[in-house]
Amino acid sequence: MDVSGDGVENVTSDDGLRAARDRAVQAGIIINGLPIVTNDPDLDDYYKNNVIGGSDSFLIAANDFSDFGNAVTQKIGREIKPDKPVPEPITILGSLAAGGMGIVLRRQKKQKDTANSV
């Protein structure tokens, strides 16, 4: 899960926020932070202490809203692991086509079996 924002004005309780984060982490959710520090230069520290969590969590701060796209690009780069290649689109399409073909063949066999039993 990714959490981004430019302040803490919507937080009603830091303790409640940390408790929710801890429950999510215990459930196996990794929470990354993408704070926009334009109005609060310490927001990245707040995210480190109260928002992010999980074994592989990370934080990438954007200096301002115009820098947010760069932060997202960095985030995606960190999440793509070189030891786990992304399948090519043709591989995905081939898998979907093969699955669809299996469904069609199964329906035809079922229709044949039904016709023969009548």
Structural summary, described in words:
By secondary structure, the chain is mostly helical. The protein folds into 2 domains: 2-79, no CATH class; 87-118. Helix content is 53%, strand content 7%. It is built from 4 helices and 2 strands. The protein has helices at residues 14-26, 43-50, 68-79, 89-117, and strands at 2-5, 32-35. A two-stranded parallel ribbon has the order 1-2. Strand 1 (2-5), helix 1 and strand 2 form a beta-alpha-beta unit. The radius of gyration is 23 Å and the shape is globular. Residues 85-107 form the Ice-binding protein C-terminal domain. This is PEP-CTERM sorting domain-containing protein. It holds the Pfam family DUF1194.
Strand content: 5-15%
Instruction: Give the averaged pLDDT, no decimals.
Output: 80
Q: Overall 3D geometry?
A: globular
- Helical stretch count? 4
Radius of gyration: 23 Å
Helix content: 40-55%
Number of domains: 2
Biggest sheet details: 2 strands, parallel
SSE arrangement, N to C: EHEHHH
Point out poorly predicted stretches.
none
End-to-end C-alpha gap: 54 Å
**Record field, number of beta strands:** 2
Query: What structural class results from the helix and strand content?
Result: mainly alpha
Major sheet: arrangement of strands: 1-2
What are the salient characteristics of this protein?
about 120 residues, mainly alpha, 2 domains, two-stranded parallel sheet, 4 helices, globular, Cyano_PEP
